[in-house]
Design a protein that fits this description.
- The protein is of the alpha/beta class.
- The protein has 15 helices and 13 strands.
- The strands form two sheets. It has a seven-stranded parallel sheet, sandwiched between helices. Strands 10-9-8-11-12-13 form a six-stranded parallel sheet, with helices on both faces.
- Helix 6 (155-163) links the parallel strand 6 and strand 7.
- The N and C termini lie close together (8 Å).
- The model has no long low-confidence stretch (mean pLDDT 96).
- It binds uridine-diphosphate-N-acetylglucosamine and uridine-5'-diphosphate.
- Uridine-diphosphate-N-acetylglucosamine binds next to helix 1 and helix 2.
Length: 371
């Protein structure tokens, strides 16, 4: 065995990827067998930077690619060309990407073209519908197809990959989001005073950003929230708006300046975790929030027709409600009125990991390189 270090490049660019990859950067950096390179595409700029700061991760390469209201074509080609330059210069032994974003799909493709080994963190998620979520379902299928190591959060994710006849390199590790969540809750103190929550009211937390929900579906969600607040004088809604203009331009005209509805800027991860803990119910189309909230015992209603995360549905902490106004209103109302139903959802188990996913991934990489 030589003393040569294994060079690992972690590539990410959006808020959720950063939350789920920063704990892994930190973990791998502690191991003297590895030379760790952090490459950020900055597919998201502000929402990425706030996570980097929280975890004190300083990228070796910042490609700074985000453009206002960017499109899939230009972002994709920028990622492909800019990562090529870094991969050719640095020649990593392994490239790690996360999940299903444009950053993940195109950085993995770029590494594949450069004949570099690929590890996929959060591998194996599927809805089995190429249009939902769009374009993420195809990104994750692409990344799994060209990966050498696949780190799956659950048994279901492992079996999804094995069903496509890939049997080598598939490992169950749990989701690194639970590592991130536990780290933040244990080590950092949040202050929510700036939101001015009324302690006498129940808080409903809302997030949304999915492309398939732009337009009519997101309008329906907003009208459902408006109706719920009008009907229930004992609730307040906090809605941190994603920076995507397609979200803001729809939500603001319907929900701005309404009593007991707070439209706020995206929260840094630390206060967001604290706000999830303070909430009675979460309405979301986010992937990460579906994984985190069951760990905190907060019922989640998913504003989508399908989910690639069916485990929490089976365990009972999450329900799919879609984007129909009446269904959203009646499901939230049931949770507000029916204590038994609420208790059932809030006592459900978290199926997404034990907070040690990064350690399992580290061990698998060491074994892969015979270290
Ligand atoms: C992306 C991912 C989606 C992921 C989501 C997480 C793809 C195809 N989609 O979607 O899978 O769930 O991120 O949030 O990769 N913006 C800013 N500042 C920021 C972030 C975004 O101004 O810090 C605005 C910009 O105008 C940007 C736009 O939001 O162009 C859209 O960003 P983009 O990454 O293309 O799409 P998302 O909807 O964020
Ligand atoms: N999040 C955050 N601030 C917010 C909203 C969400 O820090 O205002 C976190 C959330 O805890 C989760 C992640 O961002 O870890 C989810 O990101 P997003 O919903 O944008 O993407 P997805 O998970 O759907 O890909």
């Amino acid at each position: 065995m030589t003393n040569k270090k294994i060079k690992i490049a972690l590539v990410f660019g959006t808020r959720p990827e950063a939350i789920k990859m920063c704990p892994l950067v930190k973990k791998l950096e502690q191991n003297p067998c590895f030379d760790v390179l952090t490459i950020v595409t900055a597919q998201h700029r502000q929402m990425l930077d706030s996570v980097l700061e929280l975890f004190d991760v300083k990228p070796d390469y910042d490609l700074n690619l985000m453009k206002p209201n960017q499109n899939l074509w230009s972002l994709s080609s920028d990622i492909l060309l800019e990562t090529k330059k870094v991969f050719e210069k640095e020649k990593p032994d392994l490239v790690l990407v996360h999940g299903d974003t444009t950053t993940a799909g195109l950085s993995a493709l770029s590494a594949f073209y450069a004949r570099i080994k690929i590890g996929h963190v959060e591998a194996g998620l599927r809805t089995f519908d190429k249009d939902y979520p769009f374009p993420e379902e195809m990104n994750r299928i692409l990344v799994d197809s060209i990966s050498d190591l696949m780190f799956c959060p659950t048994d279901k994710a492992c079996s999804n990959i094995k069903e496509s006849r890939i049997n080598k390199g598939v490992y169950k590790t749990g989701n690194t989001v639970i590592d991130a969540l536990f780290y933040v809750i244990k080590n950092k103190k949040a202050n929510l005073d700036f939101i001015n929550l009324n302690p006498d009211l129940k808080t409903i937390l809302v997030t949304s950003h999915r492309r398939e929900n732009f337009g009519e579906p997101l309008r329906n969600i907003c009208f459902a929230i408006k109706e719920l607040v009008e009907k229930n004088k004992n609730i307040q809604v906090v809605y941190p708006l994603h920076m995507n203009p397609n979200v803001r331009n729809t939500v603001k005209p319907i929900l701005d300046n309404i009593d007991r509805i707070k439209l706020i800027e995206p929260l840094d991860y630390l206060p967001f975790c604290a706000l999830m803990k303070e909430s009675s119910i979460i309405l979301t189309d986010s992937g990460g929030v579906q994984e985190e909230a069951p760990s905190l015992g907060i019922p989640v209603l998913v504003l989508r027709q399908e989910t690639e995360r069916p485990e929490a549905l089976e365990f009972g902490g999450v329900k799919l409600v879609g984007t129909n106004k009446e269904t959203i209103v009646s499901t939230v109302q049931e949770l507000l009125d029916n204590k038994n139903e609420y208790e059932k959802m809030s006592k459900a188990i978290n199926p997404y990991g034990d907070g040690y996913a990064c350690s399992y991934i580290e061990k698998i990489i060491l074994e892969y390189f015979n270290l």
